[in-house]
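> call design_seq(struct)
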């Protein structure tokens, strides 16, 4: 099996909030770098918030120390990235991640190719690397690096006392942290058999191994091979989870929304979670991470099961305090399915560059029919990125209480029938901007009230005793009497 050959980015973190994925995504978008051309592996340091990180193992620290303190690239304690062995600390500026990433892409010379053959009975991999590069063939200072990783790892975030889910965390060192000395034969071929006994069946599909040929004289990486066990097992695509069918980014390089259909509004909205290319999924479990700043932007009030799966539900558990849900299915889910929506009340706009928030996943727990973790990927929504919620004030929220209800209708009705030539006319009541506050505006407001009330009714059913924070008009006849009274006057005028 021929392995992928992305640029290896070793991300040396200095605390467990320092993910780095957001910055790398920004660099990729800004420089039109294909998504799969970089592979970012996280190495958590035993420093600050990461001191108690269970993934900050002794071998991980040895690999980090190799870059931080061993010549020729000594650097300080700050988080950094190493792209194909090139440190961002060699460039001007504090981090300069963009420079080192662009340098690695520009100077990638594909000096060889990895292939792998698995022996499941002995739980081992036969690795072959072939090259035609004569300098590499004659190089006597090469090491083979072999590091297993696990994708979408759940961790406690000691800095925020919450949970965080990380991508591609370095796990087992199948050879030493600095690798094992190798030599190509005269035909440009290198072979080695490596044990994979420490990689359990439970995590196999969501795990993989990165192989690299590294020149120990200058730390540059000459050849990279990326192996995913799911691909060996014939699974070519991951089960991909997504919110609201968002693309990879909904903001352009200037921070502008690329399409109005991705715009959210204050009030009650559905954040719909869907699966694409699902493969044998029997359980999904996930939560939404909310920090202290994000509380002012939204609250998850309940959930709504989509029609695609409502007849295939075995059980549902929802924790309204932690924003976590667990859904088990009677029959495994396959293909493309809309699963559920979190009924979310957005309470503030996110239009300022400094006022952003995420809807970031935490505590992901997907299972297949073997009760193993399946091969998954997620289009995660994070703050300060090109994929973040964009919320504007709901134009129908006339009372500014982050809800559209009878109170807004009460405020609208006295304005019914006015035109732009009238002194009392206010454009905010003319929802379609045609210069008249008429039946079309009334119906538009009514539809939005009914949409939000349907969501609110689901929340009430799931939360006995739930009371809406903003008061709802008690007199339901307001909607029946006043509209007809104003409509009669309006129609008589015409």
């Amino acid at each position: 099996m021929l392995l992928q050959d992305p640029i290896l980015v070793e991300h040396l973190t200095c605390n467990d909030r320092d993910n780095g994925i957001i910055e790398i995504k920004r660099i990729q978008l800004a420089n039109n770098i294909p998504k799969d051309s970089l592979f970012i592996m996280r190495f958590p340091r035993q420093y600050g918030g990461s001191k108690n990180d269970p993934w900050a193992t002794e071998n991980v620290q040895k690999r980090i120390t190799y870059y931080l303190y061993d010549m020729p690239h000594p650097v300080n304690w700050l988080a950094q990235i190493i792209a194909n062995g090139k440190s961002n600390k060699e460039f001007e500026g504090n981090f300069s991640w963009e420079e080192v990433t662009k340098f690695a892409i520009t100077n990638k010379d594909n000096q060889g190719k990895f292939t792998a053959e698995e022996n499941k009975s002995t739980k081992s991999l036969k690795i072959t690397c072939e090259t035609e590069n004569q300098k590499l063939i004659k190089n006597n200072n090469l090491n083979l690096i072999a590091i297993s990783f696990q994708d979408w790892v759940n961790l406690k975030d000691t800095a925020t006392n919450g949970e965080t889910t990380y991508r591609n965390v370095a796990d087992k060192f199948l050879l030493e942290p600095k690798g094992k000395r190798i030599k190509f034969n005269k035909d440009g071929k290198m072979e080695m058999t490596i044990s994979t006994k420490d990689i359990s069946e439970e995590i196999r599909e969501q795990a993989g191994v990165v192989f690299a040929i590294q020149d120990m004289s200058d730390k540059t990486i000459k050849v990279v091979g990326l192996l995913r066990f799911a691909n060996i097992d014939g699974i070519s695509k991951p089960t991909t989870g997504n919110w609201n069918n968002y693309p990879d980014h909904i903001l352009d390089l200037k921070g502008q929304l690329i399409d109005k259909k991705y715009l959210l509004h204050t009030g009650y909205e559905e954040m719909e979670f869907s699966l694409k290319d699902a493969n044998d999924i029997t359980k999904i479990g996930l939560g939404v991470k909310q920090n202290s700043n994000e509380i002012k932007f939204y609250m998850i009030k309940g959930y709504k099961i989509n029609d695609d799966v409502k007849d295939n539900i075995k059980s549902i558990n929802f924790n309204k305090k932690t924003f976590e849900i667990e859904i088990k299915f009677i029959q495994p889910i396959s293909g493309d399915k809309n699963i559920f929506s979190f009924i979310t009340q957005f309470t503030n706009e996110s239009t300022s560059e400094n006022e952003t928030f995420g809807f970031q996943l935490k505590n992901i727990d997907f299972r297949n029919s073997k009760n193993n973790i399946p091969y998954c990927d997620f289009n995660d929504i994070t703050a300060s990125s090109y994929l973040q919620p964009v919320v504007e004030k709901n134009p129908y929220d006339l009372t500014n209480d982050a809800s559209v209800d009878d109170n807004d209708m009460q405020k609208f009705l006295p304005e019914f029938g006015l035109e732009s030539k009238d002194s009392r006319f206010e454009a905010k009541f003319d929802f379609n901007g045609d210069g008249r506050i008429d039946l079309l505006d009334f119906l538009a407001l009514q539809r939005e009230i009914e949409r939000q009330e349907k969501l609110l009714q689901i929340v009430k059913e799931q939360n006995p005793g739930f009371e809406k924070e903003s008061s709802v008009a008690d007199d339901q006849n307001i909607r029946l009497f006043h509209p007809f009274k104003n409509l009669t006057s309006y129609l008589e005028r015409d």
